[in-house]
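To: structure desk
From: M.T.
Subject: fold request, one chain
Message: Could you run this one when you get a chance? Sequence is below, nothing fancy, just the single chain.
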Amino acid sequence: MSQKSRVIIGGTSHIGFSIVNQLKSDQKANTFVSYRNQDKFNEFYEHHDLTGIYIDFNEPFRMNTFDQMEQINEVIICYGEEWFELFHECNGKAIEQYINAYITQFTIMLTEFTRRMIQQKSGKIILIGSIFGEVPASYEAIYSSVKAYQHQLIKSLAKELAPSNVQCSIIAPGVVTGGMTDRLDRETIDVLKSDIPTGQFVTAETIAEWVEFLLNQLDLSHTGQVISLNGGWHIQ
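Reply: Done. Structure tokens follow.
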């Protein structure tokens, strides 16, 4: 039996790197990691047994990107970039580029994944979304709206693809320690933590552990569900 193929979109992000490390002991999967910055990819994965795939979501998605793979069994999507800005001050060109990268190209890419999984009659898609894909966010209106679209698409695909034995899940973290918090001052961090019942931010390692858990689930019962990791900040 051939090995399964696992694709991690956004593998050079802080979260993506943690996911790759969490799953690296799985000898049953060939891992493909997307990157935009070759130097960063080489720095992160010099000693890893995996294959890099160049993808720039500011450019039109190439439908032959994954032709080298005989099959696509697992997809983890964790690429993205926060956008902190008052809505009325957002630049029109920047909005267009952001929507193209995180809605248009995201959607086109998913058509390729779903087509392959329907043919295989199996597959797993995990989106690393955001708490702000479930609840609106002031000062992050564009980011929150884009994440809401991504969440809604994955939920819709969960219904559409379930008869083909394809599981679709969303992990929606709150404030993540690392890239997000590095740009915040101490006062802002303290205010945020005081608003979170556990008083703790989410770590990339915790997200990676949940990814591994979802990949190991054989039952379809949880498909379409959102795993909210936010320390009780938002409870549905």
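Reply (cont.): Strands lie at 4-9, 29-35, 51-54, 74-77, 123-128, 166-173, 226-229. Let me know if you need anything else for the meeting.
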